[in-house]
Amino acid sequence: MPLKLPDRICFRVSRCCNARCVFCLAPATGVMVDGDTLAHRIDWLLSHGVRGFDFCGGEPALHPELPRLLAHVHGRRKKAALTTNGIEMSDTLVSALLTTKTRVKVSLHGDRTHHNAMVGCEAFDRTTATIRDLLRSGIATSVQTTVVSGKTWVVDWLIDFCLTTGIRRLSILPFLPRGTGRTRQEHFALSTAQRGALHNHVTARRRALNGRLDLRWLNLSVQPIHVVEVDGSIILEGPTEARDRVICRIPAPAGTEQLMAARENDWS
Ligand code: SF4
Questions:
Q1: What's the mean pLDDT in 8-25?
Q2: Mutate which of 10, 17, 126, 148 to test ligand 1's pocket (most atoms within 8 Å of Cβ)?
């Protein structure tokens, strides 16, 4: 059967991260894929119909070659986006985001106390400073938040934050029992009733905002997404790892197979 990939794909550049979120979908393993291999994967995906790349990780902003990869995609007249925790953002990266017209989605989960508890470090001040810097630089910036049980107030808090800072899009992601979250679902998972009430609240607030803020509901439990993992596998990710499906593996660049095998051993 011919390989059918979506127009856009989530593209992991590393499994390194400077946070330790309690609901991390892709926990840190320390693997950082080199820029040449990533550029090769991008070209392979382009040759298989992919038109847009959502750079993710780990924390993709930590990858020293991310500016080069953004330029690589832009040079091929395709679109890139970046999902980041906003803890660190170099001037070089900000400049590359601007030049390549890359959209940025920053993860922010509530006020200082709650956000820091969720990401496992003192990140709130740096993340919110990054959001303001990105907006000041003219970079299209949105916010994404993961909502856990008992903390649905964060939706209203984040709506106020976005309206105050000038963010135009907020995505709400209910907690998923994947990755780190799989071991913590008894604390954080929303019941069916809680999830339904949250969805209704988001729908009502979206209507009331009347276009002032694009409030989105991301339900990954019914919308599996294609993800390129750090070992080059393309996975159709479902709401739990048990429902993931490996689609194929991007071949390693010629002459680098041994190097790739060594990296996989690092990961295991
Ligand atoms: S959710 Fe993102 S920022 Fe948080 S630990 Fe995982 S990779 Fe890092």
A1: 96
A2: 17
Q: Is 132 a member of any domain?
A: yes
Is the pLDDT at 233 greater than 50? The verdict is yes
- Which pair of structure tokens corresponds to residue 129? 């400073």
Residue 213: half-sphere exposure toward Cβ, Cα within 13 Å: 30
Nearest alpha-carbon partner for 16 in 26, 6, 25:
26
Of 5-19, 88-102, 130-144, 174-188, the range with the lowest mean pLDDT is 174-188
19 within ligand 1 shell (Cβ under 6 A): yes
Report pLDDT digits (tens) over 64-76.
999 999 999 999 9
At 232 the pLDDT is 97
- Give the tens place of pLDDT for each residue, 143-174: 999 999 999 999 999 999 999 999 999 999 99
Distance from Cα 159 to the centre of ligand 1, integer Å = 22
Q: How far is the CA of 1 from the centre of ligand 1 (A)?
A: 35
Mutate to test the pocket of ligand 1, among 22, 54, 59 (most ligand atoms within 8 A of CB): 59
Tell me if residue 246 falls in helix, strand or coil. strand
Structure tokens at 63: 């990858």
Instruction: Identify the CA nearest to 148 among candidates 121, 129, 172.
Output: 172
List the CATH number of the domain containing 78: 3.20.20.70
Instruction: Look at the chain and report how many structural domains it folds into.
Output: 1
45-61 residues labelled b (16+ CB within 10 A) or e (exposed): beeeebbbbbbbbbbbb
Domain that holds residue 155: 8-267
